[in-house]
Amino acid sequence: MANTDLGTSPDDVQFRFREDEMADHGAVTVDAVLEQSNASAVRIEPGDDARLLLPFLDRLALVEVNFPSFADGRGYSVARILREAGYEGELRAVGDVLIDQLSHMRRCGFDSFAPDKRLDEEDAKRAFATWDDVYQRSVDGRTTIPELRHE
């Protein structure tokens, strides 16, 4: 990870890895996005089908993915679905986000984080930089160890 600036914000967003202007919070539900032509931010709850948003990705500036419990990993799949479908807007993890999840969430495509409880920034820097080399491909585009071996 080249950028070590955590992008601290005065808002609820503690860490942000984007240069563009921060979007408003995802106040509408997935169902509401399907019915509104002007919604540009959405909040996905566990159990919502992120694939329903695919036709609307070009107008969504922000997708918040709620993690009501650190043990609920469905949000990782949501992030991958959206990023692999070409979503380039802000993808924000909100809720019960813990230090040990940060690097994995980044690999899945999250680029901003609004944890329920503020995280220690030094611990977060270490967490984001935990894995210099990775074995599995992901949406972050990092070169994998097997690919490095065959260069």
Describe this structure in words.
The chain has a single domain, classed as 3-Layer(aba) Sandwich (Rossmann fold), CATH 3.40.50. The chain contains five helices and five strands; from the N terminus they run βαββαβαβαα. It starts with 14 loop residues before the first strand and ends with a helix. The protein has a five-stranded mixed sheet. With 151 residues, it is α/β, with parallel strands linked by helices. The relative contact order is 0.17. The radius of gyration is 15 Å and the shape is globular.
Concise account of the structure shown:
It is built from five helices and five strands; from the N terminus they run βαββαβαβαα. It is an alpha/beta fold and 151 residues long.
Which terms summarize this structure?
single chain, five-stranded mixed beta sheet, 5 strands, disordered N terminus, Rossmann fold, 151 residues, alpha/beta, 15% strand
> Stretches where pLDDT falls below 50 for ≥5 residues?
1-10
CATH class: Alpha Beta
Specify Rg, calculated over alpha carbons: 15 Å
Adjacency order of strands in the biggest sheet: 1-5-4-3-2
Provide the CATH architecture: 3-Layer(aba) Sandwich
Number of strands: 5
Task: Tell me the β content.
Answer: 5-15%
From the helix content, strand content and strand pairing, which structural class follows?
A: alpha/beta
Give helix % range: 10-25%
Termini separation comes to: 21 Å
